[in-house]
Amino acid sequence: QDNSFEQFIINYCNEKLQQIFIELTLKEEQEEYIREGIEWTHIEYFNNAIICDLIENNQTGILAMLDEECLRPGTVTDDTFLEKLNQVCATHQHFESRMSKCSRFLNDTSLPHSCFRIQHYAGKVMYQVEGFVDKNNDLLYRDLSQAMWKANHSLIKALFPEGNPAKINLKRPPTAGSQFKASVATLMKNLQTKNPNYIRCIKPNDKKAAHIFNEALVCHQIRYLGLLENVRVRRAGYAFRQPYEPCLERYKMLCKQTWPHWRGPARAGVEVLFNELGIPEDEFSFGRSKIFIRNPRTLFKLEDLRKQRLEDLATLIEKIYRGWKCRTRFLLMKKCQIVIASWYRRYA
């Protein structure tokens, strides 16, 4: 119920993960249709980049202003930090505070004066400003680090490498917020180089009990996890896409004109293949480099036909092999019979 600095940076990380989810699913999905020249009606979705910018912007972001408060001379308190937020973020549509210059929340009794509220992608969260400055400073006295580094225990010494006199750095140590921001940036950079798959877990109730289904809670999670937009994009778009070459290589056995070898361009071969199979034209589209199939049932049909064709080909190979084996044995027996008969007539 009481959210402080720890929950704030956790929610910031969740926002960044949601942002990369949007970029790798919804945004990338629609941009691929445009790149491939597929007719497409753009599906609107909420992009939480504006919330990430509210938190991490280098000039006006909440973390930047928190670091500025921690570093500036003079009396610095949580109230002065909140006052600064009220000045800079007053007009931001996802920031709410009773004392901001924006009078929208002046009479909002659900929002205490010592708090601010952020409208995250998963809903509104209120943060108690008390302790933000102290927790962000995260200062460890230099002499304490040096004392720990001089300990005889190797583990304790390894935990405080900054206490080594040869590595004394007179610069102010980085704040907890800046360290966490750098860590999140490294995580995002790492995820961008991967091809992640997503599993969304939906809590059916808050009691963690079996056989209880809270419909309102489930709908809330589905709405704010971006699943509705994802489903709309998937339903309006194509369930499966594949470059022409591997598609033709996989299904060319289903058409006499493409089997066993197709000499022309791969796209032309796929067109001949789909026309031969009689697949309705509204079930697929030809992109610049890929074939797009709208419904999974069409793909399942292709896979079933391929499976049946493989069985037929296996039966054909087995039949030819058995015929060759029997004929070879027959010819050998015939040759032996001739030899035996000739020797019998010789001595008869």
UniProtKB/TrEMBL annotation:
The Myosin motor domain sits at 1-307
Segments of this protein annotated with the region Actin-binding: 184-206
Q: Which GO terms describe its biological process?
A: actin filament organization; actin filament-based movement; endocytosis
Keyword list (alphabetical) reads: Actin-binding, ATP-binding, Calmodulin-binding, Motor protein, Myosin, Nucleotide-binding, Repeat
Record's GO cellular component terms: brush border; cytoplasm; microvillus; myosin complex; plasma membrane
**Per its record, what are the GO molecular function terms?**
actin filament binding; ATP binding; calmodulin binding; microfilament motor activity
Instruction: Please report which protein family the annotation says this sequence is part of.
Output: Belongs to the TRAFAC class myosin-kinesin ATPase superfamily. Myosin family.
According to UniProt, the name of this protein is MYO1B protein
Q: In which organism is this protein found?
A: Poecile atricapillus (Black-capped chickadee)
